[in-house]
UniProtKB/TrEMBL annotation:
InterPro entries: UPF0145_dom_sf, UPF0145_YbjQ-like. SUPFAM superfamilies: YbjQ-like. Gene3D superfamilies: Hypothetical protein apc22750. Chain B. Belongs to the UPF0145 family. Transmembrane segments: none annotated. It comes from Robiginitalea myxolifaciens. It holds the Pfam family YbjQ_1. This is UPF0145 protein SAMN04490243_2721.
Length: 105
């Protein structure tokens, strides 16, 4: 499955647009990670624990979106957009949404 943020793929014309597909993932950031991320913020630098959580959520949302595109019989998903939101009291949950257009090449 080709997944691209562009609306066209070089040398591969779109034969059929199959519709919008999405994938959503909500992941909780636990209190231990929050504590250590807070310390990291105070002393500077990157928060590896949050980066891992965001990477996991992004990959999960993209995988779910691709699975839905396969159900449509798609070869690719184009025009992919990723959105990130915090949810819950104190922003303890992270939601990642991937959306794009399923197509046949």
């Amino acid at each position: 499955m080709i997944v691209s943020t562009t609306t066209a793929l070089d040398g591969q014309p779109v034969r059929e647009y199959l519709g919008i597909v999405t994938g959503e993932t909500i992941i909780g950031a636990n209190i231990v990670k929050d504590f250590f991320a807070g310390i990291r913020d105070i002393v500077g630098g990157r928060s590896g624990s949050y980066e891992r959580v965001l990477n996991e959520a992004r990959q999960s949302a993209l995988r779910e979106m691709s699975d839905r595109a396969r159900e449509f019989g798609a070869d690719a998903v184009i025009g992919v957009d990723l959105d990130y939101e915090t949810l819950g009291s104190g922003g303890g949950m992270i939601m990642v949404t991937a959306s794009g257009t399923a197509v046949r090449l």
